[in-house]
Amino acid sequence: MSLTMKKTNILIVEDEQRLAEILKKQLEETGFNAEIAPDGYVGRQLIESGSFNLIILDINLPVINGIDLCREIRKTDRRIPIIMLTAFGTSENKITGFDAGADDYVVKPFEFKELLARINVFLRRVDENQEAEPALHIADLSMNLDTKSVIR
Ligand code: CA
After folding, report:
1. Looking at CB atoms within 10 Å, which of 68, 100, 146, 152 has the fewest?
2. Is the dihedral of CA 106, 107, 112, 113 positive or negative?
3. 29: which DSSP letter?
4. CA–centroid distance, residue 16 to ligand 1 (Å)
5. Distance between Cα 6 and ligand 1 center (Å)
6. Beta-bridge mates of residue 56
7. How many CB atoms lie within 10 A of CB 142?
8. How far is the CA of 101 from the centre of ligand 1 (A)?
9. How many Å lie between the centroid of ligand 1 and the Cα of residue 15?
10. Tens digit of each residue's pLDDT (9 = 90 or more) over 94-122
11. CA of 58 to the centre of ligand 1 (A)
């Protein structure tokens, strides 16, 4: 536990290794933590075991595709921002993605600065929701840093 700001954790679920590595590098250079899952199954495992602030999710993935994984994530987490990444830019594909619970969509090839701008929109929104009450959370304990009150 620490009082310093935790780095934002971003999960990249992408089977194109080169693209995933470039993205990870660019995100880390921007100041984020980034992890790569090379298929939908590993992606699901990492999501279940880790704590991510945002997910970048390719659609065409081995084992579990991005649409199915997105639906699964949404069964347990309705709030985590999910940005879909895909080579398919047709309206139908976009609608399928949004129906599955994606928040946004970037069509390959894209420029990193466009993806980054979209990431920042969601992270700003999450920040604003949390700003009202500066709080520390440990297991089921929550300490409000303004009032020094602790609730369980
Ligand atoms: Ca792919």
Report:
1. 152
2. negative
3. H
4. 6
5. 30
6. 12, 83
7. 14
8. 19
9. 5
10. 899 999 999 999 999 999 999 999 999 99
11. 6
